[in-house]
Amino acid sequence: MDLLKETMRILRAYRIAPKKRLGQNFLVDYDVLKRMVSYAELSPEDTVLEVGAGLGFLTEILAEECGRVLAVEVDPRLVKILKRRLSNRRNLSILKGDILKMEVPPFNKVVSTPPYSISSPLLFWLLDRRFERAILTFQKEFAERLVAPVNSREYCRLTVTVYYKAKVKILDYVPRDRFWPTPEVDSLIIELAPRKEPPFKVEDENFFFNVVRFLFTQKNKKLRNGLIAFLRGRGVEKPEAVKTAEAVPFHQRRVRELTPEDLGLVVNELARRTRGMGLL
Questions:
Q1: Which among 89, 91, 94 is positioned nearest to 104, based on CA atoms?
Q2: What is the pTM of this model?
């Protein structure tokens, strides 16, 4: 099936132009869509969430392979097309709205090519929910940050947070010319599998994520300096902030040199030493 020609035909028929603001770059390679579905290992017992259903090419394949599809689309123009094109699919629910602001029925798998513009918030949205596996196509640079090695340019807060909550694997490469309109970057297909248990223990998850978020705004600085700035920003007097920062492990190393496990130890010790200061 020539999905590029079909895309052009549908858009012309409905007099629609893709909206750059909504990140509307349609994946028009049928083989890539089929591979995404195969990676998900679907069965009739699965309920699959698709975010950004677009023109419904992936939606159709999913509906053939699983028990139920929840297809979310924010653009009312595309919702209209989806409802007309896929009206015969009895196991399909088309949900109009912003995935980040709506209630979604339970699902156990995710297969999606979401708009690049919501990659990060969608990832955090997913990690706050229960599911078995997600197969997602992301911008190459974003996907590489999810699996970045310590001390690399790509290593960031996102790397640490996702590592704590899930296992991530890069499965496949998708050149930019497999989309229309053609984006400026290539993409990668990843698998995201939530962990049953975190890989290390933290005393307070919210505090851990808050400290990590702050530290990676200055990841090339020594941990000591980052922690002093964090504590001073929360009203701790400088002498106490310096004393506390210099008492935690690895304080002379740079933030980007610390593994997620190292950061867990740092934040646990920081939590212990600041208990009573109202920082948690």
A1: 94
A2: 0.93
